[in-house]
Design goal:
The protein folds into 3 domains: about 5-65, Nucleic acid-binding proteins (OB fold (Dihydrolipoamide Acetyltransferase, E2P), Beta Barrel); about 65-135, DNA polymerase, domain 1; about 150-195, Orthogonal Bundle (Helicase, Ruva Protein, domain 3). By secondary structure, the protein is an alpha+beta fold. The longest helix has 15 residues, at about 165-180. The chain has 10 helices and 5 strands; from the N terminus they run βββαββααααααααα. Mean pLDDT is about 80; it is low at about 135-150. The relative contact order is 0.10. The N and C termini lie far apart (about 45 Å).
Length: about 200
């Protein structure tokens, strides 16, 4: 199984690229975000690879970070999410954004991806809830748990009332909580979260 490719970028399309490794061209499917960051044709690239073997094909999927690759692996465990759909989701949401969307049950953000309807978005959020944080968040602030501490739940509720999307509210409150500490009052959480959201 191929786990990593390092070579020169031979060509790139909207959903894939060819990496020349010592004269052998490997066709690698990737998210739009990854393809946008590969650099110029002829430049050196290194990608983490997920290899999928089917009866009729061997397909390579490439990622700049391990977090994106791990997010892809988790997404493809959901029924109805194949490699192409997983890449479509990762084209609109980075690993940390996807983790926040799943934690906040923000199915609207997940459904922005091509080929993902409301039912599939809800299934992804439901099946992957609780599985994503450790894999994808990396250095991001810890997610608040809406059902746990009441100050956090109240702050999330207040931001939702102000028109914030669940994913944005969750991120802003998580950052506020990381700055203020566990015992922060709801008013302080809201004030700092609002500051964070207008950066």
């Amino acid at each position: 199984m191929i786990a990593r490719l390092k070579g020169l970028l031979d060509s790139s399309t909207a959903d894939a690229c060819v990496i020349d490794v010592n004269g052998v061209g490997y066709l690698v499917s990737a998210s739009a975000r990854t393809l946008d960051r590969l650099g110029p044709i002829g430049g050196a690239v290194a990608l983490h690879i997920e290899t999928q073997v089917r009866e009729d094909a061997i397909q390579l999927f490439g990622f700049l970070s391990e977090a994106e690759r791990d997010s892809f692996r988790l997404l493809t465990t959901v029924q109805g999410v194949g490699g192409r759909v997983a890449l479509a989701i990762l084209s609109v949401l980075g690993p940390d954004e996807l983790a926040h969307a799943i934690a906040a049950a923000d199915t609207a953000s997940i459904a922005r991806a091509n080929g993902v309807g409301p039912k599939l978005a809800a299934r992804i959020a439901n099946e992957l809830k609780g599985k994503f944080g450790a894999v994808a968040l990396g250095t991001a602030a810890p997610l608040p748990v809406a059902g746990g501490r009441s100050a956090v739940a109240d702050a999330l509720s207040a931001l939702a009332g102000l028109g914030f999307r669940p994913m944005d509210a969750s991120r802003a409150v998580a950052e506020a909580q990381a700055e203020l500490g566990e015992g922060a009052a709801v008013g302080e959480l809201i004030r700092v979260a609002l500051k964070k959201s207008v950066r």
